[in-house]
Amino acid sequence: MSVVPMQKAWRRVVTREQAGQEPPEGEVWARQPTAEPEMPRAPSRLATFLSTVLRVGVPPLLGLVLFGLAWALVAEHTGLPGPVKTWESALQVFAHPFYVNGPNDQGIGWNVLRSLSRVAIGFGLAALVGIPSGFLIGRFSFLSRMSSPIISLLRPVSPLAWLPIGLYVFKEAQPAAIWVIFISSIWPMIINTAVGVTRVPQDYLNVARVLRLSEWKVFTRILFPAVLPYMLTGVRLSIGVAWLVIVAAEMLTGGVGLGFWVWDEWNNLNVEHIIIAIFVVGIIGLLLEQALVLLAKRFEYQG
Amino acid sequence: MERYVSLENVHKVFDGRQGRFLALRDINLGVCEGEFVSIIGHSGCGKSTLLNLISGLSEASGGVLLCNNREIAGPGPERAVVFQNHSLLPCMTCFDNVHLAVERVFGRKEAKPTQRRRTLAALELVGLTHAADKYPHEISGGMKQRVGIARALSMQPKVLLLDEPLGALDALTRAHLQDEILRIVAASGCTTIMVTHDVDEAVLLSDRIVMMTNGPAATIGQILNVDLPRPRERLKLADDPAYNRCRAEVLKFLYERQHKTAA
Questions:
Q1: What is the DSSP track for A198-254?
Q2: Which residues contact A235 (CB under 8 A, 6 or more apart)?
Q3: Which chain A residues touch B117 with a CB distance below 8 Å?
Q4: Which of A70, A93, A232, A302 could covalently link to A296 via disulfide, CB atoms 3.0 to 4.6 Å apart?
């Protein structure tokens, strides 16, 4: 990653030196490397591409085909809509994703967006509370001991058990659904962040002590970078939970959203749409997960 | 010469699960300005504990520790430490790792370009100008340790504390870095205290070698003066009778008087 700018710097130095310049005070120019290192010849691009396709592309494709066949087979015997029927229905559904036909009949696009916005608000609030609490719990063992019975007690509670509390307190469906997302997605962030803080190597903290770094520097230069991978794992788990819970919560609270849509289509006995909803939920969950995995990779450091 | 670092009747007690454990007792040691002192002993004898007391990372249970006639009350940049496992911060480049220390020590007094120059000079001293923009995981163990040394020296410490700085390196790299340390310490004129378990390393680098008895309740068993002229050269010393006498003395202490029962 950092090799490229290095080479650029070398080239720049060479031209300057050729121009007979001296480095200005306070700047040291790197020496020009005496010879370019020889690289072994890489296999042709086409061959690499084909082997990658074979190795990476074929097995998942095979899995999907087998899944489709099994689905068709089951559909044959149970009367569920098969892949072809569902696909045709999906084309219709996605032809007009953003129609509005009254408050209870809106396009799939609106349903997805409303579900996502609920998850975003609930999860965002959970992150806002959970990550700082995780840091505090990890840094001070007193707080850790204080909060651990509460966390152990509340964490295993089924998310939907929180819904009546939300309805009672907020007297409204929308904030109650967000409350359920909040309370069920906060735990992985608290716990992972706290674990990350306790795993910060003592050596780094010793460096901080010898340098007498300020608390702010300790946080930004040592604690935060070291905890970040743990934190992102927590975030990933939380988003997963939040997305898992939203469908169930919306089934109960109603309003526009994927969960409500599933329940509504069940009342209409439109099973194709239910299957489409399952795929939509799955694909969006997958995308959220992958986005966070990519984000986590960006911040990975080896010691 | 006057004592620059001074330890008087220092004790260290750890409170463990199996009760109190006396790690160090009756440590009396004075180190003069500019002197290079090695602390050697079998593993578990409390060498690193002793160094941690001097660095201030851990607190003595009794006795007096002075540095420049002031009590040592906690760690500080005037007593720079080079840790055994380099301890570079992984999310920063080598330059930034050293710069963090420079910024902390000289941030209030000096302009930014001067600080940059200090950082680069420290990296140049250890011969790593070319690796300034690399991250710790992109360089070898020996290079990491050299960045650690650069970080310590960039603070212009009064005392340089080396905690088995070369313990994790292979023999060839270690020999190479010993020569580097010899050169660097001579150039900086720093008072240096090094913990080691390598007899050759101790004799090659030190003015005095402090030999520790085995723990528990370890203390200083013997102090050996190494009267070899500087600058020292590894190859010439190999046949030097004075060098070999020192070496034999340390070995005798470690393997005859403090023979470690199979651990």
A1: HTS-HHHHHHHHHHT--HHHIIIIIIHHHHHHHHHHHHHHHHHHHHHHHHHHHHHH-
A2: A127, A188, A189, A292
A3: 25-27
A4: A232
Nearest to B186 by CA among B126, B121, B231, B125: B231
Interface residue B167 vs chain A (CB under 8 A): no
Residue A108 has which token pair?
Answer: 């799939």
For residue A28, give the chain B residue with the closest CA: B120
Q: From A29, which residue of chain B is nearest by alpha-carbon distance?
A: B129
Cβ neighbours for A66, distance < 8 A, ≥ 6 positions apart: none
DSSP 8-state symbol, A256: S
Judge whether B65 lies within some domain: yes
For β-strands B191-196 and B208-212, DSSP reports them as unpaired
DSSP H helices, chain B, are 47-55, 94-106, 112-125, 141-154, 171-188, 199-205, 234-237, 241-252
Smallest CA–CA separation between B212 and chain A, in Å?
A: 25
> What SS3 state is found at B128?
coil
- Residues of chain B with C-beta less than 8 angstroms from the C-beta of A206: 57, 75, 81, 83, 87
Range of the structural domain that residue B246 is part of: 3-78+157-257
Q: How many domains does chain B have?
A: 1
CATH C-level class of A117-255: mainly alpha
CATH of the domain at B237: 3.40.50.300
Q: Is residue B83 part of a domain?
A: no
B107, part of any domain = no
The complex's ipTM? 0.84
Question: One digit per residue, pLDDT tens: chain A, 303 residues?
Answer: 444 444 444 444 444 545 555 556 655 555 555 566 666 676 788 888 888 888 888 889 999 999 999 999 998 888 888 888 888 888 888 888 888 887 777 788 888 898 999 999 999 999 999 999 999 999 888 999 999 999 999 988 888 899 999 999 999 888 999 999 999 999 999 999 999 999 998 889 899 989 888 888 888 888 888 898 899 999 999 999 999 898 888 888 877 888 888 888 888 888 888 999 999 999 999 999 899 888 888 877 544
Q: Answer whether residue B130 is part of any domain.
A: no
* Cβ of residue A211 closer than 8 Å to a chain B Cβ: yes
Q: Is the minimum CB–CB distance between B196 and chain A shorter than 8 Å? A: no
Residue with tokens 């019975």, as numbered in its chain: A149
How many residues are given for chain A?
303
The CA-to-CA distance between both ends of chain A, in Å, stands at: 16
Query: Which residues have C-beta within 8 Å of that of residue A302, sequence separation ≥ 6?
Result: B90, B137
CA-to-CA distance for B102 and B122, rounded, in angstroms?
10
Interface test with A, best of B48, B54, B89 (most A CBs within 10 A): B89
Instruction: List chain A domain ranges.
Output: 117-255
Measured CA to CA, the distance from residue A223 to residue A227 in angstroms comes to 6
Put simply, whether B168 touches A (Cβ < 8 Å) is no
Report phi then psi at B121, rounded to 5: -65, -40
CB contact under 8 Å between B76 and A212, yes or no, is: yes
**Global pTM value:** 0.72
Which among A204, A206, A213 is the nearest to B104, CB-wise? A213
